[in-house]
Amino acid sequence: MFGDRLPITIEPYKLARDAGFIEGDIPLDKCERVISALADTQGHCHVRLEFDIDPQRIRFIRGKLKGQLMVSCQRCMQPMPIDVDSEFLLAIASSDEAAANLPKQYEPLIVEDEKLELLPVIEDEILLTLPITSYHDEGECSVSSEMLVSGDVEEAQPETKPENPFSVLMQLKDKR
Hints:
It is built from five helices and seven strands. By secondary structure, it is of the alpha+beta class. The N and C termini lie far apart (90 Å). One of its GO terms (cellular component) is cytosol.
């Protein structure tokens, strides 16, 4: 277990059949694939997973992920907090072929046998939730926008319209 009743492996087919749920915390320092995207591994993410079967007999997981992560500001490279609050809907599929036939509202989760390691699924959702780039607000960042300009800024020259390469042909046509 990682925290409040969060197991390492689960049986998603059985949990879906029983309409079960799992809720607990995952320490960020246990998420090895996420660590490289973080400035600090202190803290945790709170996870709630609800399992069920929809009217089409598709077993699914409705999940919620919430936490505060420390990432690096891309301007000043100093740590900054970002709030992560994500909801996701995963359909449990036994093969790639079954996953390809799922309705569009579901993201496929391939579970080939009866057991599923929970940590990689949660790591995937954390990584999908993180912003591609993150910046402090300009007033809070130690690097101002003036510091980001390199070299002299030349005054914009008015654009000259390039000569039409077919103007010679137009002149020949007009001579007729």
